[in-house]
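explain this:

___
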Amino acid sequence: MILNTTYTNKDNDEIINDLVGYPYSFFKKLKMKGIGSGRMIIDEVSPKLEKAVLNGSDLNYANIELRPKGILVRITRRLDNFTWIIPYYQLYTYMTNGFSIHGQGEFLHFRNDRFLKDNKSFIKKMLNLKVIFTKDYYI
């Protein structure tokens, strides 16, 4: 699900909290050594996401926020902000000539550059949290 989060909206906050859980507390964020990635350059997107979010050929950036039951991919296009909500059970990632996130029939591919290299430890943390979450639900 993609939401326009340029302006704060209580309905959007409710939807996000229902799907991926409430944000981590301050002390939990410190214990986890951060819950957000640095920005990464978007290289390619699925056609549906391109229509909804990325109109034009400008450089677009995204970052990822961890939540207890999923992730939030925050996409910046000019002055607008969009949030793609992906629960862990719908999240798939691939490392092929960059890094791509797949979920809900859509994908987002990040460019293989220094921004991606700076976020390697964050990506490992995200994948470990996904494994821990799915381990509780699958036998």
